[in-house]
């Protein structure tokens, strides 16, 4: 205890005197939660950040606290998911380029942009976050590691906001391609505008959250500065993002009701769109992780789940947006394996005669080869007519 800073020693003595523990009873001091809470609050108020971390390290060592370390899990998850996402994106682009008449369209370019943004983000996460204490207790790390960790987390924020925003834009572009009705397109356009403004706003928040800018990562070096409530900004972003995910899921499901299909066929098409709901669930889990880390004083440990779920959300989102094209790839492979040369598919084109105020009539057109599927992603086995 003699190694403790004066400010921390004063806090400890005062807390022990106010508790049922004696000065010599180390076991009682280590297990008394109320005492430890009083000491922690006092130390954070009276000591510098460096003194507080040093105090925590000493007291945890004396109490024989285990050294926690869990970055290996994040490495396995991030590498495997990024690898799968990479295969799916490249397969999607190659298939669209070689085997469809429309080639690579806007939604494909947007998903490619999302994937490209994931590359520097992944490198930064592995070098700056994993390499400097992600999944470890903050008081076990040197000041230099904490500085690099905070820098890595600061870099992750704008990448994450950009990736999520562009990922949603890709979904919007996909819906605009398969639901070309005037009203639906206008709805999707305004959704895209909101998504862009929403993403840009939070990217700007990242660059303005601390004064000076580098205080976000230099605060562990005792530098002077101030930051806004970063947690509140993260929660609001996560909440709106989840709501937008639900909105983007509702749009195709609402359009589906106009299809004159059997119940089971509607269920099948709905399930295809509901694959995206998996990303919504992940977004909600990430939101819960953000709430749990509010007022955290053990950032490198508590941020682990936020970083992990952020990575999972983006990479799984990329996978889900590639699923419709992967279905076409599998159908084409099955056709060749089965030795057939052609198969009927149905897509929907809007009647050119429809206009403002008129009823848009949709025609189903049989396509002999999958290469000629214009809409590509909706392939219904039987010709079907429906009205809007």
Automatic annotation (TrEMBL):
Disulfide bonds join 7-47, 11-42, 21-28, 30-63. This is CFEM domain-containing protein. It is found in: Membrane; Secreted. The chain crosses the membrane at residues 74-95, 107-129, 149-175, 187-208, 228-255, 267-291, 303-322. It comes from Truncatella angustata. One of its GO terms (molecular function) is metal ion binding. Belongs to the SAT4 family. Belongs to the RBT5 family. Pfam families: CFEM (PF05730), Fung_rhodopsin (PF20684). Residues 1-90 form the CFEM domain. It is a lipid-anchor; GPI-anchor; Multi-pass membrane protein. The keyword Membrane applies. Keywords: Disulfide bond, Glycoprotein, GPI-anchor, Heme, Iron, Lipoprotein, Membrane, Metal-binding, Secreted, Signal, Transmembrane, Transmembrane helix. InterPro entries: Extracellular_membr_CFEM_dom (IPR008427), Rhodopsin_dom_fungi (IPR049326), SAT4-like (IPR052337).
